[in-house]
Predict the 3D structure of the following.
Amino acid sequence: MSLHIHMTGQSKSLLACEDPLQLPARASRASSRLAAILLAIFLSFPMISAYAQESTAEPASVDEEAEALVEAAPPEPVAAPVRSDKQPKPAEMSSYAVRGLLLDIDYTGEQLIAVGERGNIIVSKDGAQWTQLEVPVRATLTAVSFVDAQHGWVVGHDATIIHTRDGGATWSVQAFNPELEQPLHNVLFLDQSRGYAFGSFGLFWQTSDGGKSWMEVHAPTVLEEGFHLNGMAQLKNGELLLVGEAGLLGYSTDGVSWERLESPYEGSFFGVVPRGEKGALVYGMRGNVYVTDDVSEAQWRKVELDTVSSIYGAWAKDDGAVILVGADATVMTVQADGSVEHAATDSSHASTDTINSAVRWPGGLMTVGESGVQPFGSKAAE
C-alpha cells in the first residue's frame, strides 16, 4: 500500500524555502496579530453601542416640551374667599368708642382716623373733638390705610375689608367671611388701585382694582409654614418688605414675586418702616428692633432699646428718625445714627397701658391703645 500526499504549490514553496524551525514562531506572531485585532473589535463594542443608543434616542415630544413650559409658568391667579352666606351687622354707635380699645390710626392730610373693637371708626380734625362714623360691620377693626384724603381701606376680624371714597362719610364692604376664621391684621395700599391685605396663618391677598376684586398672593417660600403676617412697608426705592411671626421677612422688588430673606430674629415682628433709600427698621416682641441700610443684602444691626416691652407701632420722621410705641406706654425715638431717646411722658396713658399705633400730624404725635385715643404732645414728634 502506498501513501499519496497532495501538496499545493504554496505548500511546496514553504517547504522548499522556509526553515522548518521558524514555522512555529511565524504562526505564533500571526496568532498574536489576530488576537489583537479581535480584542480591538471587542473593546469598541461599548462605544458603538452607546453611539447607537444616542443616535436612536427619540427627541422630546411636543407634549413634553409644552408640559415643561406649563410647569415653569406662574400659576393662574386664585380669587380670594371674600364672601360667605352670613351678612355683617353694622357697628353700634356709642360714646365709649373714643375711650375703648383702638388698634390703629392714620392721618389723611385733612383729619385723623382711628379704628378698633366692635367696628368703631372715629375721626377728628383737631385732635380734641372726635366723631364716631357709621360703619357697616361690627367686627374688630385692626388697621387703616389712606392714600389721600378721600380714599381709604380698613381691615379686621372675620376677614373684613371696607372701603371709603369720600373720606369716611360712607363705607362699602369689599370682603367679609367669618367662616374663614382668619382675621386680617394689616393693610397697605400703594395708590388707589394697588393694595395688600394680610393676616393670620398666611392669609395674603392683593388687588389691582382698588378692592373690587381680591386675589390670593402666590408666595410659596413666604407662606409655606402658615405664619401670621403682621406688617408691610413700601421702601423708598419702591420695593416691599413684609414681616411676621417667627422672624418672617418677605421681600419683593415688583409686588408680584416674593422671596424669603434670612432673618436676624426668631421671634415675631409686628411692623416695619422705611429707612433711607433701600433700608428699613423692623420691630417686634420684647423690644427687639433691627435696622439695615439695604434690605436686599439682609445685613441687620440690632438697636439696643434698654427695654423688654414689645413694640407694636412706629412712625418714620422726615429726618430719618423713627418713633416707636408699644407695651407699658413705651414711646421712644431711634435717631438716624442709631441712638435711642425716651420721649417725655406728657401723655395721659397709664404707665401699664399698651400703645398700639401712633401717627404724626400738625398737632404733634397722636397715639391709640387700650385707653382709646390720646395725644402724646409735640415733643415726641419734633
